[in-house]
Amino acid sequence: MATKITRDILESYLHCKFKGHLKFTSQQGIKCDYENLLTAMRAKVRLAAIDKILAPHAGEDIPRNIPITTSALKEGASFLLDATLEDDFVSLNFDGLKKADGPSKLGDFHYIPMLFIEGEKVPKEERSLLEVYGLLLSRLQGQMPVHGIIWHGKECKATRVRLNADLRKTEGLLERIRQAQETEIPPRLILNEHCQICEYRQRCHQEATEADSLSLLRGISENEIAGLNKKGIFSVTQLSYTFRARKKRKRAKSPSNPHYYSLQALALRDKKVYVHGAPSIPCPTLGIYFDIEGSLDRDSYYLIGLIVVDNEGVRQHSFWANSEKEQEAIFGSFIDTVMQHRECPLFHFGSYEATALRQMRYCLRRKHQMALDAILKRLVNILAVIHPYIYFPTYSNGLKEIGLHLGFNWTECEASGIQSLVWRARWEASQDPQLKARLLQYNLDDCMALRTVVEFISIVTSTKESCADEPGKRPGVAYTRDLQGHRPREKMFGNKDYALPDLECINKCGYFDYQRDRVFARTNRHVKTIEKRRARKLRRFPRPNRTIVITCKCCPYCKKQEIKSIQLLSRYLVDLKFFKGGVKKWIIKYASWRYRCLNCDKLFSSRRLQEATVCYGHGLISWTVYHNVGCGQNLLQVKKGLLEVFDFNFFFPRNQLYRFKASVSKYYQTTYKQILPSILSGHIIHIDETEVALRGKKGYVWVVANFEAVYFFYKDSREGAFLEAMLEGFSGVLISDFFSAYDSLKCSQQKCLVHLLRDLNEDLLRNPFDEQFKNLTQRFAALLRTITETIDRYGLKKKHLHKHQVDVQRFFSWLYSMDFSSDVAIKLQTRLRKNEAKLFIFLDHDGVPWNNTNAEHAIKSFARYRRFADGRFTEATIKDYLMMLSVYQTCEYQGVRFLDFLLSKQKDIGAFAEFVRQGGRVIH
Question: Which ranges of 55-100 would DSSP assign to H, the alpha helix?
Answer without folding.
Answer: 70-74
